[in-house]
Design a protein that fits this description.
transcription regulation; RNA_pol_sigma-70_dom; Rna Polymerase Sigma Factor, Chain: A; mainly alpha; Sigma-70 family RNA polymerase sigma factor; 2 domains; sigma factor activity; Arc Repressor Mutant, subunit A
């Protein structure tokens, strides 16, 4: 599955990002939507329902992207601020949740912290700057001294690693 995803990423990443940019008019948002498209695609075969056979992955990726664009349009007015890293504990731990749920959320948070600490520094930094501080790929690239494409690869690698470590994606 990982090899297929890497191949699909190489084949369709640029095209999907251009389509997303055309639809939303924001390069950062287009990059995020493209990444989320591949993350959703990767998660298909790991749900409770067996993954469907996909005859045309390009079309399927475009369909996922289209749905994400629609979802984003619906949620623009509801979007809040980015959550600071030190606030993640409070966000994940619902005070009204029972002890079992709190234990599970704590376990997931610890697993996420471990996964983040296992990442190479540039991957971890790129992911945190993008997802927590809301920086664009270009801004991260300038800060790290790499290309925006490399930032995208760092973020995809970090997301894939975290998803695996949280048990959401088989290796």
């Amino acid at each position: 599955m990982a090899e297929d995803l890497d191949q699909l990423f190489r084949l369709y990443h640029r095209e999907l990002q251009q389509i997303a940019y055309h639809r939303v008019g924001d390069r950062q948002m287009a990059a995020d939507l493209t990444q989320d498209t591949f993350v959703r695609y990767a998660g298909l075969s790991h749900g409770a329902v067996p993954a469907p056979h996909i005859d045309n992955p390009r079309f399927f990726l475009m369909r996922i992207l289209r749905n994400l664009v629609i979802d984003m349009g619906r949620s623009v007015s509801r979007r809040g601020e980015h959550i600071a890293l030190h606030d993640v504990d409070d966000y994940l731990l619902d005070p009204s949740a029972g002890p079992e749920r709190q234990f599970e959320l704590r376990r997931q948070l610890e697993c996420l912290h471990l996964a983040l600490n296992e990442l190479p520094p540039l991957c971890r930094e790129a992911l945190l700057l993008n997802r927590l501080e809301g920086l664009s790929h270009q801004a991260i690239a300038e800060r790290q001294g790499v290309s925006a494409s490399m930032v995208c690869k760092h973020i995809m690698r970090a997301l894939r690693h975290c998803i695996r470590r949280l048990g959401l994606l088989d290796e």
